[in-house]
Design goal:
Blueprint: E1 2-6, H1 10-22, E2 26-30, H2 41-44, E3 54-57, E4 63-66, H3 68-79, H4 87-117, H5 123-144, H6 156-165, H7 179-189, H8 192-197, H9 211-227
Parallel strand pairs: 1-2
Antiparallel strand pairs: 1-3, 3-4
Helix pairs in contact: 1-3, 1-6, 4-5, 4-6, 5-7
């Protein structure tokens, strides 16, 4: 049994989706980021960085893993699934996983901050991070032109990137001109395990096109950002 400590953010959903795809039994513990629960001593004993997600694998003895990319690697290696064993094939998966960890996530996170959360609209910053997010989307689109998935078969690399790319509207970045990426987003969204993973825990409905609801959510996140309650965790998420 695995204990999953998470919240409804892209990084959190990476892990719940992977657990559902792998059919591993787990118990979800949802942390209230607005209440600073990720800074409680009990959680810091699991993840000293005080961020979600984190897991504790209870089989055969308690073993904690934090950082979403590290958790995905651990689960894939534990089960022998969602990542090839052959060295070069495995490297391809890890390369695209790192692409998300070092590029897609940070750039979209900053786009969220400047486009959605900062009360002052600093247009050069918005342009910078939306532009870099779109550039990275084009890289994905190019890779997916001749590949069904990013690194051969469906893998943790697809899960990691998809959990972020699916929130592109919240970052203010369109993908309608990227047909290969659009196809991939829709295909992965249709997977039953992905749909179930997105409910663990569930996001509110997509409010990107609802100005009133979007501003209400952004105002709440802005308060958290300004008070430092979650060390910018809301900047990484979307409703």
């Amino acid at each position: 049994m695995i204990d999953l400590y998470s919240a409804a953010t892209p990084n959190g959903h990476k892990i719940s989706i992977a657990l559902e795809e792998l059919a591993l039994p787990y118990t979800l513990h949802t942390l209230e980021l607005s209440k600073n629960e990720q800074k409680n001593a009990s959680f810091l004993a699991i993840n000293p960085n005080g961020r979600i997600p984190a897991i504790v694998d209870r089989d055969p003895e308690d073993f904690a893993v934090f950082e979403s990319g590290a958790i995905l690697l651990y689960l894939a290696e534990k089960t022998g699934r969602l990542m090839p064993q052959e060295a070069k094939a495995r490297s391809r998966v890890v390369q695209w996983l790192m692409f998300q960890m070092g590029g897609i996530g940070p750039m979209m996170g900053q786009a969220n901050v400047f486009y959605r959360y900062f009360p002052e609209k600093i247009q050069p910053a918005i342009d910078r991070y939306q532009g870099e997010s779109k550039r990275l989307f084009r890289v994905l689109d190019g890779q997916l032109k001749d590949h069904e998935y990013l690194a051969g078969d469906y893998s943790i690399a697809d899960i990691a990137n998809w959990a972020w790319v699916r929130t592109h509207k919240w970052s203010g970045v369109d993908i309608d001109d990227l047909p290969n990426l659009r196809r991939w987003v829709d295909a992965i969204r249709a997977r039953p395990a992905v749909q179930k993973g997105l409910l663990m825990p569930a996001s509110v409905r997509d409010i990107s096109d609802d100005p009133v609801a979007a501003e209400k959510f952004a105002a709440h996140a802005r308060t958290m950002l300004e008070t430092g309650q979650s060390r910018n965790e809301p900047s990484k998420g979307q409703p």
